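2 proteins. here.
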Amino acid sequence: MDASKKRIVALGVAVGVGVCMATPASAKAVTLKLAHQWPQAESDYVIATAIKFAQEVEKRSNGDIKIQFFPAESLVKASNTHTALKNGAVDLAIYPYIYAAGAIPEMNLLLMPGVWKSHDDVFNFRTTAPWQKIEAKAEAYGFKTLSWIQISGGVASTKKPIVSSADVAGEKVRAAGKYMSYALQQAKASTVSMPSSENYSAMQMGLLDAVWTSSSSFGAYRLYEVSKFYVSPEEYSIYYTIDPIAISMKTWNKLTPDQQQILSEVGKSLEQSALEGAKNEDSRVAKLFASNGVAVQQMTLEDWNQWHALFEKYAFTKFKEDNPSDAALLDEILALYK
């Protein structure tokens, strides 16, 4: 084997994981690996957004940037996504940023209950100074955001509608995140931690009386079949999760400025349609509950304010105790929505 062929083989081995370079004749061409935890279903607006992202990136790069999907945790476990991005084991990912909270405590703020009232509040947050500070932490850790995707959540229950904090006393509930769990415990609820895939059987068997989860999960796991009441997040919600398209900084730094610009511009261009997808998903899931005989109601502003008072007293305080260096950041965020 001559020296040039040896060099090509060595290059292929070196980038076997991460950015996969093409032959020297097309040295700018890359194939990026995108991992996520869900089925590869275009009916899910999150996945549909990622598919549009991949298609548009390939089109605008004239085929020099291709994106290969690895759905359903086939490349990396969801909880390890941030580590895989940091190490360059995956190039791109869609995943809930809360999974990175162990490494980046500020990510807890993205699942903090009672901060945002509506989808528009959450969407506008992506342009604020507090978000830029959190994003800077993510980039320093090892990944950056290309496209903002958000998901809202409601609460389904079997005994009574969960409208206020008084309704959770004595109930077995599955909360969204540790700070919601802590606040609900102070309201005399018994909190249970389990993955979304186990909620159906737990409610069916009476191990759970109520579940907070995302609209998408309510639909995907058919929780309307084992629920009697549903408080929909269509107007107001105490719970949102941020699930962006992220890129490894190791991958980002290997790309040309033109490739970086294409990825950034395409990601930004899809954010508005992802927001509309999130709102439509809330409505679609509420109709699924109603069509299966579940009593559906909307959260009102009065309800939201009552929940906010609970979280302000317990969840916000607990976060500040756990993360004193980030107390001012939480206050900065809250000041935006007073």
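next one coming up
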Amino acid sequence: MDLHAMDRYIKSLIKEAGHKIRNSFLSDISIESKSDANDLVTNIDKEIEQFFISRINRDFPGHRIFGEEGFGDDIEDQNGVIWLLDPIDGTMNFVHQKRNFAISLGIYDDGVGKLGYIYDVVNDDLYHGVQEGGAYYNDERLRPLGTTTIEESILAMNATWAVPNRHFDHSGTLKLIQDVRGIRSYGSAALELAYLASGRIDAYISMRLSPWDIAGGMVIAREVGAIATNFRGEPGNLLEQDTFLVANPSIHSRILKDYIHEK
């Protein structure tokens, strides 16, 4: 792939999609539930995914698309070039707040992240990363992450992961909450990955994320030195839902060892 040409193309495509989303604020939005009452999807999620797919199929007919709303391809392997897309990451925020959501997109070639994008639509902020080419906030190159400690860190995590559950021992999570400097929850995995890469937070934990939630952000985060794994220390899963931890490299292993204990 010509990464520079692809990068220019994708930035233009994302900005056009963002314009469509902002225009949707002036119209009625149709809201449905998916897996449960809090797992929302709107007609705008679907329309934006279909917009991306139509352009990708036209201009890159050999590429495959793995999208949240199911309009792309059935992906069972990582062969070839795959676009992993969440048209609106943070749909609940989109519905209720009209902010704190993002377009998330990762381009992978044989399972290797080549390009990653997170677009904060309302604030017109674009985070992007190029394999071995750095990570950027708009046109400003992001610096490699500095060292930190658990006690000095700000952690992003949904509050539901700190209550009793069947997946892991929540007492470890509660201890982590007590030990870190602060806890935040933004309601968008993509934005939380962007904030990690830009140094606004130091770690992000989730019990359950899908490939399109993390694909773009992992490319960006790795370009500044962050480590992204599941709770078993394995690379982020790009084929199915899994646990997820992305963190400053100076605290990643300690979080896994001292605070995350699966049942």
